[in-house]
Amino acid sequence: MRALLVFFAVLTARPALAETLIQNACLGNAYESCFVLIEGQIEPGLTDRLRSLIETEGVDGGVIYLNSPGGTLGEALRLGRYIREQGYDTAIGGSDGIPRHTDGKPIFLGSEGPSPGRCESACAYVFMGGVRRFLSERDKLGLHQFFAPGQQIGGEVAQKFSGDLVAYMVEMGVDARIFTLASAQDSTGMYYVTQPQAEEYDLVTRVGYDAFFLEPYKDGLIAASKRIDPPQPYDGVDQMSFYCRAGQPYALLHASVHALSPEERGSPIFWTDNIEQKLPEDAVSVRVDGDDAYLTIRISPPQAQAMAAAGTFAIGAGYGRVIGGNYVAAKKPTPLDRRMLDAAFRFCID
């Protein structure tokens, strides 16, 4: 067993480079504009360095960007598990083209966030550690077989090694069928996962809201849609519902992550097809029940019709950042979604 663990620890895909960069950066003074960049080789001790940064200096933001050609697989799995344990999301991005300090570290300011990057070989397994995982079309996520320099991988060791990797993928909520794509490539090749494959194999996290469903209530109907990804700080709404009462259309948003109180009315936010729809300031009311907050937003019948016909819409209320910022739900409705919204607004609940 000890020999296997040593072997597993030295599996690699690239020769060692200069020390890997770990940097916490913010594009502004908002929590959601902050991130950690890990750029370079996945090298032994990288998990301890990240832990030290988090525990000693503190880290702002909830996303870790990765830009790496690979490295030590044992460290990659350790780092991926630590990222999951700490509740961070992962994305791919680097510092190419970003201005530098005199010491060579990138300067992230304003809109100059991470540039497109690559996450290959061992890095792909770090990426899997994110609670939520994001991959843009400009980024590269690469998989291939691993190797131990100067060693031949025997059948028994290869079988145990493959089982450990598959178990890790299952642990991280990734479809282990992706392992077959990696296994089909030799150690010098690289298979780059396409966006549809990343979605099919659960390498990336679906975000936004699921399809609407109808619920009968009294003599009417309520159309509701649940959020697919977990709510986050400053993005705490996890369900939107729409209904009509006494001829008046309403939106009801549920927030499970919030700092709201009934005294805070908020400013209404309502857009259809990128066109702002004006609502009166008293259109928003809040009810707090323990850890749950409910925002009721009153809209006019013509606005309800516009929303049911829109290609996209967003509705919610804006507050100061100290109590959570904007509480908004947005969706690109399908034709069936539109029919359900129309039914909810036509068949009032009383």
Task: Give a short summary of the structure.
The protein has 350 residues and is an alpha+beta fold. The protein contains 9 helices and 18 strands. Mean pLDDT is 88; it is low at 1-17.
Describe this structure in words.
The chain is of the alpha+beta class. The chain folds into two domains: 2-200, Alpha-Beta Complex (2-enoyl-CoA Hydratase, Chain A, domain 1), CATH 3.90.226.10; 213-346, Immunoglobulin-like (Sandwich), CATH 2.60.40. The protein has helices at residues 2-10, 46-57, 73-86, 122-127, 155-171, 178-183, 195-200, 301-309, 335-346, and strands spanning 21-26, 34-39, 63-67, 89-92, 118-120, 133-134, 140-143, 191-192, 213-217, 220-226, 237-245, 248-255, 267-272, 275-276, 284-289, 292-298, 313-318, 326-331. A hairpin with a 2-residue loop joins strand 15 (284-289) and strand 16 (292-298). The longest helix is centred in the middle third of the chain and has 17 residues, at 155-171. 36% of the residues are buried. Residues 1-17 have low confidence and may be disordered.
